[in-house]
Amino acid sequence: MDDAILYLSDEQRLEAFERNWSRLEGSTPLRLDPDALRSCVQLLPRVEPGAASEPHAKLTDLLLCRLRDERQESEYLYRLAEACSSNESFALLIFKTVISSGESGRDGRTVSPEQQILRIAAFLTFLKCSYWLPPDSHHVLEPGLVELLSTFVGIEGLHEPALDALSALLSLLSRRPHEPLYSIVDQSLWTSFKALGTARFGTKSSKLFKVWFQWISQAATDGLDPEGVYEELYWDRVRTGLLTGFADQRKYCLGIVRASLLAAQSDINTPTMRMQVDRRDVYVKAYDRYFVLYETIVLDRYANQIEACLAELSALFGSQSVVTASMATTLLSSGLDPQVQEGIRKVIGNWYFGFMSGSQSPLSKDSESLTEHTDFLIRGFLPWATQGSLFTSTLKASRTDTKCGHGAALVQLIARFIVSKYSDEAYRGELLALVLHFVLDAGGKMFQMSTLYLLEGLIKGYDVANQNGGPTRLTQRAIEVILGVSRTPGLPEIASDLYKIYCKRLCDFADLDLGLSSIPGYIALNNKVEELSRIDEISKSQATAVSTDSDLASLSTFLQTLQDTKHTSIQGSAYATACDQLVAYLDKADLASITSDELHTTLDAMWEEADRREFNRSVAVHLPTLLFHPTCIQICLREHVDNSEDGSGNGLEALLTKAVETLQQLSEGRSYILTSFATSLCRAAFSHPAVIEVLPYEDVILRFLNHPPAAKAEFLFEVAAADKLQHYITHRSYASYYGQREWHAYAAWIDLLNRFPEEQKHLAKRIFDRLLEPWAGQKGSIPVISKWKDVFQLQAMLILTEYCVSEADADAYLDKFMHALTVEQWPRYRFVLEWAITRIYFHYPSKADRILKDLAHLDENSPIHIASLMKLAVLTAPFLDSEDFALTLITQLIPFSASQKVHIRHEAHLSFPMIFELAEKKGWTNITSNPGFSVLNTHIRQTEKFKTPAWSIRTLRIDAVADLTLTEIFQGQYLYIESPEPERVAHDDFVALAHGSKSTTLPPARISLGNPRTQTKVPVNPKPAEFTLDEDGVKSNFYQTKSGFDFNSLLPAAGAPHLQDKQPASVILVASLIDNPTNLGGLSRISESFGLETLYINDIKKTAHKDFKATSVTSEKHLPIKELKEANVPVFLIGMKRKGYKVVGIEQTDRSGILGDDAAGGSKDVGTLPKRCVLVLGAEKSGITPEVLSVIDRCVEIRTVGMTRSLNVQTAGGIAVYEWWREWAGKA
């Protein structure tokens, strides 16, 4: 029709215009007919560009009227703009009119402000759609256009439409580089942005930053020198976008930074950004690295990649870097944002600790860097660094000290800031105030123990500054803040005392001229510290009627005092004194002078008081010593016998039973009760063994062994605080608050098992059986790690094996232990099980033939079992002293040494030389004179693995007889390799226990204590290579990045709305013949990664399958996946061929071309892929069906050179799609 209009006369054009005008006027009230509009526009009378006729005016009025009355969708407006642009004169008229209407805001009618906003928004939306037209369309592009559209930015109701219009305009300008349009892009956009409030640049400002990025990119292209890049506000707004935005917004901000550096024509010198124009390449190169690091850390967030790029991060942000501290801390703050995964934040935070303490620390760069990093420390770093999980996860307790790795790093960091190169007295006072105000502003919501480390860091920094001669005089304002912090409540006892010491220590840095006593709160703090410094004299704090004579005359006197004082004599701090007096009385009292009723009443009163006080520390540590005193136990046993005879109840026994059960439960959460509780019960058991059967010892011991208690992380902070408090006040140790550590309880219970009274051995055997039962009862495939298992159970069973296994039941126990060993997978558990089994053979050597019989009858389908039998035989052979046993064993080892099973072969290689060496020591010539044995022995000993020290539990060797000591059981090498076990008890604990039990007659020990041995160091992997610097920064190893976006990809798509979201590759992938969800998921990932139009599969429900998701990695969320049943594939392909697509099958046929080969040979098809292409993949086994092959245009196959003729369907699909891109990239 367009060509026909050219041949119409003016009269015919007018007549045709009127007919289409009537059709246009007859359109629905809200929507013009775009086809009718196009016809009218093309039939307008011919006029000069810029002039207008009456039809021009009539058509313009109609269009404006319809535009301003209702908002329309973009696709419709695009078609209207397309119609308008078909006539140059009308396009200039309508677009200028729309622009002027938006500018003036008047159209001759009186309207409300709300209506006016709606109409301007409609005009802006129409302009946006008009700018989507191809660059060669008739556009109105005049100076001042950007300024005009920018005036609407920030106005409620017009902000978003104005940004959309600006984005479309700038996109149009970027596609018309050949025209001299430099005057269109001007400074006005930044002028408008500068007037906006900070809130406009917050989290949901992606569109604003997109327009900003387009504008500065076009400015750089056009040669405009943007004035904003020399202003701090410009860069502060970019920082806001980087800190608060989502991924798209942050990408735009990075693009703004790069384009701004390229656009600037003079030096930039602001706190946030600096650049010397004559060294632009160096700055751009450094910031390109910055962008990659930002992408890796903040956008991609793959932990392994972040760890790999830390060296680059150190070099780029170091003291010699051109990247400003402000931009560096922007990246770090973004990486530590609470919305980032904790694992990523931990990597960045821990890196910062090390980075700031290194030689390249930016704190030594200049004062501005110090200021920026100080701001980051308070605002960005401390909110992360004071999280409780970071402290508890790095808390390491040993026998000598308890330290928190994270806390120590925080102390070093704070101190490093205080003593940095550019710090002075004013800065130190400011930093102290900032840190303490951070604590106060948290209002108790931060992890309270973190405050101790912050205070310690401040003290350490001030101490170092003072030693270096720097002034450290704190002002009255600083002292007032310190005193405010000192009143923070809620800390445990030792931590609270240390807190006061720290606050007082900081006050010691006050200006000498200050009158500290006049500052509110100082005297109270000073008095508290002085009180802590005095050695406690508890008797002074007792204001009660416990007799002034520390010796208690009788229980009746004690009970009378209780009655007279209404129990105040055992309340408060007097409780501990009362316990001590009662214990002293029981130590020397005549048993006949104590009545059971008085004793029961006394103990019951003490128990009720402890219960009333919820068994807090001040009572719980004293109570067990009193309740389970040997005298109390003796009276309990006496009444137990008496009551058994007459059938009456025993109040004292019931009380002590309740105390045992309650205190054990409490001790599992309060480790400071453990030692007092355990040592008191064990002392009672040794003094009066019969009590083991009266009180619930069996259940207590089993509970302890099955659930070994340990100090909770929260309590370990108390232990750590005690170590630090003792540094200031020597008598304020852990023991002065809580008594002995928990490992003394372990020593007590193990010592009881090792010395179990002979007359109660049957009870020990019950404990042994109950421990062994779950291990022997395991069936089938069991998990490697189970919550109910613990090596402590096996260690206890190893001890009990020494006296709980008789010859009569040895076979039954061997069966149980062997079953447990057969199913067990964890090497450490297997090690102790093998040790226990060997000890049974040691006691009953006639049973050892079982080992050789089992070795002879087992096949190699049980490699771990066979390896264990070989190890048992090697452990048993030395004490059997049997040449026949050794000869049979070494003969069996020969075929095992050549086994295809790694476990069997390795164990045989370790065992053979050991048996041969034993034969040499014993002079067993039947072995040593055998040339075959000798040759194999020499060969194995020359292998590298035999010479290498033991690095795993499986290769660790012991002497089952000589090594059986308590020290070796609980401190042996096997506990420290392959996931070390916590050291629960040690040699020194048993020594201390023995020293404290000298006054008690003890049964003989079944297992000797032994002496500790030096542990062999386990080989560790070497550290990765360090990075090396080049002249521009860092030359590090390559590290991965995942997203790989480029700044050009951030520019918005152009064209009609329905084309803007179109996938970049004109390829459709048909996978309807494939059933495997794993392969379909991989094809989804490939299709989305390469921008294919659509993926067709047989059943859309497969996208929800776990195997699909395992390989798709969420690609299905970003790719059109449609269902196409296998039976419908031929019809679908025929339909696509009608639409202009070529259908290509990836299949090996007699006519298949070689993929990528552009020449057909003989009967072979061409191997290149067409531009508009439907790729068809065949089933995993049968390929493409004949029905589908019959409608395919041609087939291609992938050239291979190996013996395997086919590829996995995922791999084939990926290769084919990549080949399409290789052919059509840039042409699609």
SSE layout and pairing:
Blueprint: H1 2-5, H2 10-25, H3 34-42, H4 54-69, H5 74-84, H6 88-104, H7 113-131, H8 145-150, H9 159-174, H10 188-194, H11 206-222, H12 232-244, H13 247-263, E1 268-269, E2 274-275, H14 280-300, H15 303-308, H16 310-316, H17 325-335, H18 342-357, H19 367-385, H20 388-393, E3 395-397, E4 402-404, H21 405-418, H22 425-442, H23 448-467, H24 476-486, H25 493-507, H26 522-533, H27 555-565, H28 574-588, H29 596-612, H30 617-620, H31 623-627, H32 630-646, H33 651-667, H34 674-687, H35 691-694, H36 697-706, H37 713-728, H38 734-738, H39 743-754, H40 761-776, H41 791-804, H42 810-823, H43 827-843, H44 849-857, H45 863-880, H46 883-897, H47 902-922, H48 925-928, H49 931-941, H50 944-947, H51 966-971, H52 987-996, H53 1057-1060, E5 1067-1070, H54 1077-1089, E6 1094-1097, H55 1106-1112, E7 1121-1123, H56 1129-1138, E8 1142-1146, E9 1153-1154, E10 1173-1177, H57 1186-1189, E11 1194-1197, H58 1209-1224
Helix pairs in contact: 2-3, 3-5, 4-6, 4-7, 5-7, 6-7, 7-9, 9-11, 11-13, 12-13, 12-17, 13-14, 14-17, 17-19, 18-21, 21-23, 22-23, 22-24, 23-25, 24-25, 25-26, 25-37, 27-29, 29-33, 34-39, 36-40, 39-52, 40-41, 40-42, 41-43, 42-43, 43-45, 44-45, 44-46, 45-46, 45-47, 46-47, 47-49, 54-55, 54-58
Q: Any key phrases for this structure?
A:
single chain; 1228 residues; mainly alpha; 7-stranded parallel beta sheet; two-stranded antiparallel sheet; 58 helices; 11 strands; globular
